[in-house]
Amino acid sequence: MTQALPRGWTSASLNTLGTWLGGGTPSKANPAYWQNGTVEWVSPKDMKRLLIDSAQDQITKKALKESATNLVPANSVLMVTRSGILAHTFPVGINTVDVAINQDLKAWTSLGAVSPTYAAYFLKARGQHILRECSKDGTTVSSIDFDRLSAYPVAVAPANEQRRVVSKIDELFSRIDEGEQALKRVEKLVERYRQSVLKAAVTGELTRGWREARKRAGESVESGEALFAHILKARRAAWERAELAKLKDKGNPPTDDRWKQRYTAPQPPNTTGLPELPEGWVWTSLDMIADVTGGITVDAKRSGSDCESVPYLRVANVQRGYLNLSEIKSLLAPKSRIDALKLRPGDILFNEGGDLDKLGRGWIWEGQIPVCIHQNHVFRARLVLPGPWPKLVSWYANEMGRAFFIDKGKQTTNLASISLTKLKALPVPMMSETEAAEIESRVSAALAAIEHHNSDIRSASVSASALRQSILKAAFSGQLVPQDPKDEPAAKLLERIAAGRMQATPAPRPRKKKTA
Q1: What separation, in Å, do the N-terminal and C-terminal C-alpha atoms of the chain show?
Q2: For residues 324 and 257, what is the distance between their CA atoms, to the nearest angstrom?
Q3: Which end of the chain is more exposed for a tag (fewer CB within 10 A), N or C?
Q4: 385: closest CA among 201, 230, 207?
Q5: Which residues of the chain have pLDDT under 50?
């Protein structure tokens, strides 16, 4: 250890203090190794808590006998030694039952000088130092060098003090756990409130009082039929402007109105099972209120002087209720298509594929990048009516529309997707521009308050994590519990255990000399 140890403590490597077991993965091709398994088979995905009493997978005793995995006795310390998580965290756990482990873990069993819980807490306290000192360089997947890990020094306290240390850590961590559970309850309440606000917004409940006050004041309320006609008129006008521009670009300006006959009227929404809307509201389809289109296919073979490198949005960039622009990639796109694909502020984005519950998730483009397009797995909806509707449409799609996407989505073995045609059929409630602006203002204020609460919750969670590390640091520097001079020094404890091991280990038999 680089720092001075408290009186009565000593330092010894993990190798000196215990024995090791590795693991392996029984062949997935052999059903006899996995069907009706009774042995918990621990892998990195199970290492999310201190006490490991079960795993997501189980293997049979036959697999235990015939594969590279081993049965790890209960009360051993499990450590992840190969996983992407090692880029920032060193997972440690204690198996409370006998388990098998896969090849990405190592199991350490104490010889008695330190308790498993003491050792696990120590390794958690030194987690970041272990990652710095024991990580392998140049590996594709983050890995721990076993030789360096097994030689890692442990600060060994006297046995009685170990028990006091563990008891105090358990006590303090239990209090932190209670606080974190309270934070999770608050977080759920805040999320429930957020969902109720959005539901009230897109069903008209949020502005019920606002509408009634306007009615009492004698202000007129636009009828649903008038709003419906206004939307269809705006849609046709938008199509005619775009179509006329295309004809002129091609050098074929029309000489009469026959080209207008190519207009395809949108299909009305299927309102079966949908709630009744307030007066002045109307159910539309996304196709009725927006130009909905797909994006460009990513093609690594695309090249040439007629192409230009431009930033583009992928599925990973389009999240539910926000855009993650931390990593924007670029692709070569035909110059002739860039202008048509270029995103404009107010465009609503929807994901075409992913897990079934993530279909249709999305948010609004606000012009964060001057020139940016979208790939074919991200749909774009450009509303025909200018105004405050983009957020309302996106809020509705992300919350109330989720059932529609799950119902209409197509599920394959590893992926779910929704077609452009079905996305266009998404039912969307519409209201007057005045009421839409009122809803946007109220929801934006509520979401800002919710984000403030969530920020406080995140800050408290970070503080709880930092407090745990402070407790562990104090514990293994001798500052958490008082030392007792009557305790047997740790060095003597190690000597006794070493002597006992020597007596218990039979002397090796001399080799027989080979006869000529």
Answers
A1: 54
A2: 45
A3: C
A4: 230
A5: 1, 512-516
Cβ neighbours of 280 (radius 10 Å): 20
Q: List the domain boundaries for the chain.
A: 10-158+487-502, 269-431
H or E element, residue 267: none
**Burial class of residue 47 (count of CB atoms within 10 Å of its CB; 0-12, 13-18, 19+):** buried
Strands 51-52 and 92-95: parallel
Tokens of 44: 């990195």
Closest CA to 311 of 295, 332, 294, 326: 332
Instruction: Please spell the DSSP secondary structure of 83-113, one letter per residue.
Output: SGGGGT---EEEESS-EEE-TTEEEEEE-SS
**Tokens representing 234?**
């705006």
**Cα 66 to Cα 28: distance, rounded to the nearest angstrom:** 13
Rounded to 5 degrees, what angle do the CA atoms 382, 385, 389 make? Answer: 80
pTM: 0.77
pLDDT tens for each residue of 343-393: 999 999 999 987 888 899 999 999 999 999 999 999 999 999 888 999 999
**Which CATH code fits 269-431?**
3.90.220.20
Q: Which single residue is written with the structure tokens 């008695």?
A: 112
- The whole-number pLDDT of residue 2 equals 53
Topology given in CATH for the domain delimited by 10-158+487-502: Adenine-n6-DNA-methyltransferase TaqI; Chain A, domain 2 (3.90.220)
- The amino acid at 492: K
Residue 403, class by beta-carbon neighbours within 10 Å (0-12 exposed, 13-18 middle, 19+ buried)? exposed
